[in-house]
């Protein structure tokens, strides 16, 4: 055996294993799958939501198949089909970031424990400006409420947003445990009248450190999502049209938008599943 192994240039242990193998290993063959119907489904989703990558498209297809009681689809198959048909998004060029100042955790494990708030602006085609302020939950990611103004948001807007959010989540009751309200240090948020009103309706106002946008990173990420997936594609010839389409956009985000932190479920889908499991 030693002489044979030396002549073949292999180890004796490997040669022994080969001799003991009575049956040659099976050659794995790739199973051919007809992807024609899947390609049509993906193209339909991508045509309506051109900024969605393969994982969000997979989340939409999974929800649709669950509704129709069809067999689930693998995310790797969705990636392969989108790659083979040039439907993937281009690779994002990573921008050089700034020094990270925040080391805590913004997300929470239970809904109605911490809400956050921030705002953004955009211009309509006629040059009119629209300022939007919102309040998402830091567990289920639902945008609980939002307000829009042509002149920037004021303390009254923030207080209206606070009251709207409490009513939507608790009805006529107040929270039994104060809900944290996380925001930056904008004048409308840190005004004493706003902070006092927040405490009266069961909120606990919390401000981020100065010059630390990472401390409210989920709100910053929400702004990017709304601008990228909705504002950039919706018709906005004037304020009135933009407001109508913003209403549709926020409703779509809450009901349909797959979120990576929710295992690619939408915020309300996640809330329904959580309520059903209790």
UniProtKB/TrEMBL annotation:
Domain Integrase catalytic: 106-275
PROSITE patterns the UniProt entry points to: INTEGRASE
Pfam family, one: rve_3
Gene Ontology MF term list: nucleic acid binding
GO biological process, one term: DNA integration
Gene3D superfamilies linked: Ribonuclease H-like superfamily/Ribonuclease H
NCBIfam families named among the record's database cross-references: transpos_IS3 (NF033516)
Protein name: Putative transposase for insertion element
